[in-house]
């Protein structure tokens, strides 16, 4: 006895077999269809291309952390060649530009409160005399700290100028022909230390520090046959993540398995829950990222104490 299987049934069986062996069958057709839809929609095309171009221009030219030619006021009560040379040293760093001189310390502080300048240099009348006598010649550098970026740049530049002048004076007095320790830095990849040289590649495709390209999280909860008892589990997978801004160092991928349980019951005529949870059941440790090149150790197995809570 023979039984003929209808043709549409055979086609359905064949399609099911093909889908098992080719789960992504038709993906290219869907991708091509989406591309055509986007290409035919002018508004979508605009938002697809225009914002990245604006970001590249903004980060490459408009946004710049390099602080140059900060306005500086000068109060020079010494009026000597040495004091004028010190002022020139500040201007030659290209971090400062002298926008004016004031006659008194009170007016200097008043102009700083008005926001006329970001920094002010005060040279007392005994500057050269103390310097020639071998004593410590003190000068005062006032910095507007309302903007931390410019304030930090002004502070570092001022300390650098003072250190350079002090070392030159010590070498001249001691008769040394060179520095005791001569460090000659060589800046690679960005000799001019221009911030846009890092901004533009960051917008184009450098991976952010500490951000994994993908993370998988699986959660399951089971109501057991026992009345009031629930069990749950969580599996988390984190892909490797860049740990430095140059993307040369990555922390490895990490799996974590958490398990827990809850028991619901009555406590003094009130609904209560008993909770027990264990984090990182396998006990494998790993590394986390606190900043570019800064790491912290992730804890091993840990858990929460058994404690009842009223619902």
Compact summary:
The protein has 311 residues and is an alpha+beta fold.
What does this structure look like?
The protein is an alpha+beta fold and 311 residues long. Among the domains are: 70-174, abc type-2 transporter like fold (3-Layer(aba) Sandwich), CATH 3.40.1710; 215-310. The protein is 36% helix and 29% strand. The protein has eight helices and 13 strands. The strands form four sheets. A five-stranded antiparallel β-sheet has the order 5-6-9-10-13, with no helix packed on it. Strands 2-1-3-4 form a four-stranded mixed β-sheet, with helices on both faces. Strands 7-8 form a two-stranded antiparallel ribbon. Helix 3 runs antiparallel to helix 8 (196-204).
Q: Please give the radius of gyration in angstroms.
A: 35 Å
User: Secondary-structure element sequence?
Assistant: HHHEHEHEHEHHEEEEEEEEE
Uncertain residue segments: none
Structural class: alpha+beta
Estimate the global geometry from the Cα principal axes: elongated
Mean pLDDT: 79
Spell out the CATH superfamily of the domain at 70-174.
Answer: abc type-2 transporter like domain
Number of helices: 8
């Amino acid at each position: 006895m023979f039984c003929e299987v209808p043709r549409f049934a055979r086609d359905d069986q064949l399609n099911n077999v093909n889908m098992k062996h080719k789960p992504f069958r038709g993906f290219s057709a869907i991708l091509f269809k989406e591309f055509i839809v986007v290409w035919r929609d002018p508004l979508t095309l605009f938002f697809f291309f225009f914002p990245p171009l604006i970001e590249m221009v903004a980060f490459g030219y408009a946004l710049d952390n390099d602080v140059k030619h900060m306005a500086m006021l000068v109060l020079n009560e010494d009026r000597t060649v040495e004091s004028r040379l010190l002022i020139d040293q500040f201007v030659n760093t290209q971090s400062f530009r002298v926008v004016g001189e004031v006659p008194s310390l009170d007016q200097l502080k008043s102009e700083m409160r008005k926001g006329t300048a970001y920094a002010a240099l005060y040279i007392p009348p005994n500057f050269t005399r103390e310097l020639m006598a071998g004593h410590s010649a003190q000068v005062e550098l006032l910095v507007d700290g309302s903007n931390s970026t410019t304030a930090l740049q002004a502070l570092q530049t001022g300390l650098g100028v003072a250190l350079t002048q002090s070392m030159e004076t010590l070498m001249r007095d001691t008769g040394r022909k060179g520095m005791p320790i001569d460090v000659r830095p060589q800046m690679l990849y960005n000799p001019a230390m221009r911030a846009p040289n890092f901004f533009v590649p960051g917008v184009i495709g450098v991976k952010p520090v500490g951000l994994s390209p993908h993370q998988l999280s699986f959660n399951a909860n089971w109501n057991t046959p026992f009345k009031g008892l629930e069990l749950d589990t969580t599996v988390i997978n984190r892909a490797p993540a860049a740990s430095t801004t140059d993307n040369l160092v990555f922390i490895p991928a990490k799996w974590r398995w958490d398990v827990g349980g809850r028991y619901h019951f009555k406590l003094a005529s009130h609904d209560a829950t008993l909770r027990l949870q264990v984090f990182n059941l396998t006990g494998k440790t790993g590394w986390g990222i606190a900043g570019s090149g800064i790491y912290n150790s992730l804890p091993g197995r840990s858990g929460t104490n058994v404690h009842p809570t009223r619902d």
